[in-house]
Amino acid sequence: MPILPPQAPDPMAVEFERMFCEQLADGMTQDNEDQAEEQGKQLDADKPDEAIDEESDNESGSIIVGGASKDNPDPFMLANITFNNPIDLSLQPPHLQAIYALVTWLWLQFHLPQVACQVTLAILACILFFLSPMIQIPLVTLASANRILSLNVPIHILPVCPTCKEVYPDSNSTEKDCQVCQSPLFKLDLTWCGKLQKNRIPLLCYPYLSISEQLSSIFSVPGVKDLLDQWRTKS
């Protein structure tokens, strides 16, 4: 049986594949930059707060335990707060808005795993490219989709004493035991299989978002500032 010579690759198919790889590489580069920025914000948030003046604590009537104030540092005074400016959705193509909204809705409503969401984004990017090579393809990570839809709200998790309900700052310098009742604040450092935990997990968590961060997200909505200034036109 004669052996047919290998067929030469289609130049158009090769060019399409090159263009798709370039677009996908650009998307992955943007995703990596977004993840690095989020990690940098998390490292800044994990830094211990500056010590509050002891005399001002005593004047404010805070409780003193063992010679030090239990609210020093203040758990609700977060250091190095960064605000995420929302992205103007009007600058995004409608097909990308629909894709990001679909994937994030599946993640929030039905708890679709993050890896499944990212596989969905990658598959949709491949389908769109092969249907129209010149179309803009979506980013392929869930973090980027949340950032574009302004859903990456920085919720801070503060540890709470399960016994006396005292709140402590989310910092690596926080003691393992409560300063008031000496109850443990965090779960065991080892997992069920004997491995060391990367991050300390509080026994009782308090999701916290500061007033300044809430106001920043509210004022970023188009039309809110004008609505708040309408009182100036009233007699």
> Mean pLDDT score, rounded?
75
Q: Which class do the helix and strand fractions yield?
A: mainly alpha
Instruction: Estimate the helix proportion, in percent.
Output: 40-55%
Poorly predicted regions? 41-68
Q: What can be said about the biggest beta sheet? A: 2 strands, antiparallel
Rg on CA atoms, Å: 25 Å
Distance from N terminus to C terminus (CA atoms, Å) equals: 97 Å
Global morphology:
flat
Q: Give the H and E element order.
A: HHEEHHHEEHH
Count of helical regions: 7
- Estimate what percentage of residues fall within beta strands: 5-15%
Detailed description of the structure:
With 235 residues, the chain is mainly α. The protein has seven helices and four strands. The chain has helices spanning 11-45, 54-59, 94-110, 114-131, 142-148, 211-219, 224-228; strands at 64-65, 68-69, 156-160, 204-208. It has a two-stranded antiparallel ribbon with strand order 1-2. Strands 3-4 form a two-stranded antiparallel ribbon. Strand 1 (64-65) and strand 2 form a beta hairpin. Helix 3 packs antiparallel against helix 4 and helix 3 crosses helix 5.
Structure summary:
By secondary structure, the protein is mainly α. The chain is built from seven helices and four strands. Helix 3 packs antiparallel against helix 4 and helix 3 packs across helix 5.
Tag the structure with descriptive keywords.
235 residues, mainly alpha, two-stranded antiparallel sheet, 7 helices, 4 strands
Q: Helices and strands in order, then pairings?
A:
Elements (H helix, E strand, L loop, with lengths): L10 H35 L8 H6 L4 E2 L2 E2 L24 H17 L3 H18 L10 H7 L7 E5 L43 E5 L2 H9 L4 H5 L7
Antiparallel strand pairs: 1-2, 3-4
Helix pairs in contact: 3-4, 3-5
